[in-house]
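Supplementary Methods S3. Complex input for the NAP-bound model.
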Amino acid sequence: MKKMLVTGASGFIGSFYVDEALKRGWDVWAGIRRHSNRAFLTDPSIHLIDLNYGNGLQQQIEQHVAQYGKWECVIHCAGITKSPDEADFYNINYEYTKQLIDALRNSGNTPSIFIFMSSMAAYGPGDEKHYTPLRSDSTPQPNTAYGKSKLIAEQYLQSLPDFPYIILRPTGVYGPRERDYYVMAKMVQRGVDVALGFKPQLLNFIYIKDLVNVCFSAIESPLHNKDWFVADGDIYTSKAYTDIVKNVLHKKHVFRITFPLFVVHLISVFGALFCKVTGKPSLISPDKIRIMKQRNWTCDITPLERDLGFKASYNLQQGMEETIVWYKENGWL
Ligand SMILES: NC(=O)c1ccc[n+]([C@@H]2O[C@H](COP(=O)([O-])OP(=O)(O)OC[C@H]3O[C@@H](n4cnc5c(N)ncnc54)[C@H](OP(=O)(O)O)[C@@H]3O)[C@@H](O)[C@H]2O)c1
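Predicted complex, serialized as C-alpha cells:
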C-alpha cells in the first residue's frame, strides 16, 4: 500500500486531503500537533504523527522510514494564514517547509511527489487598474507577511531541480469545516454584510471538493516541478458573492455596510494591538486587511486546464448550497 503524509491534517484543507487519500487507497499519516483538533480525523486507519519541526525532524523521519517505509507522496498543508506576530509567518510557512524538505532530501527519502500548498497571496495584489488575472509568469509582488512567506517557500522549492514538487496556489477556498467564509455567512444570516472600500473588487473562488480533485489529479499525473493557480474559473464581484450567500440562506434583506479603507486600516491597527495583548489571531489583523482590501483576486487557470484537464464541478452557487447545508446540519448556523 502506498504511503502518504499530509501535514496540517487537522485543518480545513488537510482533513479533506486525508479523506480523499483514504478513499483512493493510500496508507495515510496525518501530521498533527499534540493539541490539534481531531474531529475530522476519526477513521481508525489514519496514523497520526506529530512532526518535530525545529528540532530533530530529520532523525524522526529516518526512524519513521526504518519502521514503516518512506512516504511516496507528501502534501504539505501545515501553515498559518493569520497571526498576531508577523514573524510567525516566516517561521511556520517558510522555515518549517524548508525543514521538512531538507529532512526528506538529506535522509534520502525524497518522495515521488511533494505538493506544496501555497496561495495566490504569494503574488500580491496584481493589476488593480485593469484587473488582469494573475499568471505564473506575472512578477510576484506580495504585500503581506503571509504572501511573502509563501513566496520564499515556493522559491526554495524551485531552487531544487532534483526534488519533484507541485506548487498549488489556490484562491479563497470555501466549503464545509472552513471558518472564515463561515463567519461571513453567519453575518449575512444575521442580516449584515460588511464590504471594504468603494472601488470594485473582483474575486475568484474554489470549492474544497474541486481543490481536492486538482490535488489528486496532480499526484496521479506524471507532471512535476510545476506551479498552478487554482480557482473555479468564474469571476464575481464581492456584492455578487454576498448575493449568492443571501439567496442560499433565503435572506430577503441584508444591510450592506461599506467601510472606507482608511477606517478599516485604523480598526486593524487597534485589532493588532488587542491581539498582541491577548495573543489571539484576529480576522482583521493589518496583514489580513491588506489581503481583504485587494481589489483584484483573479487568476488565470488556463495552465491548470491544459495540464490536468481541470474543469470545476461546482460553481459558487452549487458549492455554497452544499456548504450551508453542512453548516446547518452540524449546528454551525
Ligand atoms: N483556506 C484557504 O482559503 C487557503 C487558500 C490558499 C492557500 N491556503 C493554504 O492551505 C493550507 C491549509 O489551509 P487551511 O485553510 O486548511 O488552514 P487551517 O484550517 O488553519 O489549517 C492549518 C493547519 O496547519 C497546522 N499548523 C498551523 N501552525 C502549525 C505549526 N506551528 N506546526 C504544525 N502545524 C501547524 C494546523 O494545526 P492545528 O490544527 O494544530 O492548529 C492545521 O492543521 C495553508 O498552508 C494555507 O496557507 C489556504
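The mean pLDDT is 94. The first helix runs from residue 12 to 23.
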